[in-house]
Amino acid sequence: MSTDTNCNRAGLSKLDYTGKPTTLCKGCGHDSITAGIIQAYYELGVAPHNLAKFSGIGCSSKTPTYFVDRAHGFNTVHGRMPSVATGASVANKKLTIIGVSGDGDTASIGMGQFCHLVRRNVNMVYIIENNGTYGLTKGQFSATADLGSTAKKGPANQFPTIDCCSIAIELGATFVARSFSGDRKQVIALVKAAHAHQGIALLDIISPCVTFNNQEGSTKSYSFVKEHAIPLHELGFVQFQDEITVDMKEGERKEIKLHDGSLLTLRKLDREYDPTDKMKALTAINDSRQKQELITGLLYYSDKGTDLNTLLNTVESPLWALGEKDLDPGPEALKKINASLS
C-alpha cells in the first residue's frame, strides 16, 4: 500500500497504476491512451491483483506493459487476444479484464476472433488503438484506413474501410464508443464507463501514428482528426459508491444508469443524438464517414444484453480454486445426465 497522501479508495497512489517506460515513438497517440487508462483506473480504485491485461501483436499491443505493472498480463500471438481473454473470463469471472488491440490486430488477422468475442458478449473492456496503419512493418495501410487516404509513399488506399464500431453494434455489442487520443477528458470518462459496463465494452480510439501516418492526406493524422472530430455529447461519469456532483454546463442532459449502478451523464451539444437507438447509431456512423467527419463519444448503449458468464452460469469461484470434490458430481448426477440424453 502506498504512503502517498493522494491515495484512492484502494489505498494506492497514481504511481501504483503505472508500468514500464514506453518504447513507442515520441508523441504516439497510444501513450496518450495509456495515460487515460492510468488516470481512469486510479480514480476508480481498481485493484491491481484483480486486473488482467491482454493484447496481441503490434505497437498497440505493447500498451499493457505501460500501465498497472502489478496486474496479470498475457501478450498473445497476432489476432488471438479475444479467445485467450474469453478463456480467462470464463475461468475466473471475478477478474477485471481489459484487452488492448490495434486496427491490424483486430480488423485483419483478428477479425474472426473479434466478431465472436462481441457476439458472445464477454465481460471486458476492449480498446482498439486505431491509426489506420501497420506501424511495426513500416506503414502499410490497415483495414481501417479510409478509402482514398494517402500514405507517405505509394498510391492512395483503394479499399473501403472496415468500421469496427458498426460491426460491433450489428453483432449485438451493448456498449460501443469512439474517441480521439488527443481528447484526454473524453477518453478517461469512456474508460470509466466501459469498466462499469457488464458485457463487452468496445472503445475505438483514433490514435495518430506520428511516424508513418501523420502526413497531409491521411484521415487519421493528428491535424485531420483534430479538425474533423465532432463530439456528440459532453461526458461525465459518477461512481455509484460515492456521492459526487458533476459540474455540467447548461444544456440538455441524459443520465444512463450502468449495470453497477454508476451513472454516465451525457450533455447534448450541436445535434440531437440518442445513444440507445441502434439504427440511428449505425446511420450516424455511416453518415459521418461519408462526410469525412469523426463523431466521438458513446455511440450506442443498451442494458438488454446478457454477458457470457451469466449465459453459461459459470461458478463464482475461480476454476483454480476448485478441488476434486467440487469437480466430481458423483454417480447419481452422471446417471441423470445420461438419462437426459437417451
Mean pLDDT: 90
Residue fraction in strands: 15-25%
Return the CATH class: Alpha Beta
Molecular shape: globular
The CATH superfamily is identified as Thiamin diphosphate (ThDP)-binding fold, Pyr/PP domains
Q: What is the N-to-C order of secondary-structure elements (H for helix, E for strand)?
A: HEEHEHHEEEHEHEHEEEEHEHHH
Main beta sheet: strand number and arrangement? 8 strands, mixed
- Structural class, please? alpha/beta
Cα distance spanning the termini: 57 Å
How would you summarize the topology of this molecule?
Elements: H1 29-44, E1 51-55, E2 72-75, H2 81-91, E3 96-102, H3 103-107, H4 111-120, E4 124-130, E5 133-134, E6 140-141, H5 164-170, E7 175-180, H6 184-196, E8 200-206, H7 222-228, E9 229-231, E10 233-238, E11 253-257, E12 263-268, H8 278-290, E13 294-301, H9 308-312, H10 324-327, H11 331-341
Parallel strand pairs: 1-2, 1-3, 3-4, 4-8, 7-8, 9-13
Antiparallel strand pairs: 5-6, 7-13, 10-12, 11-12
Helix pairs in contact: 1-6, 2-4, 5-8
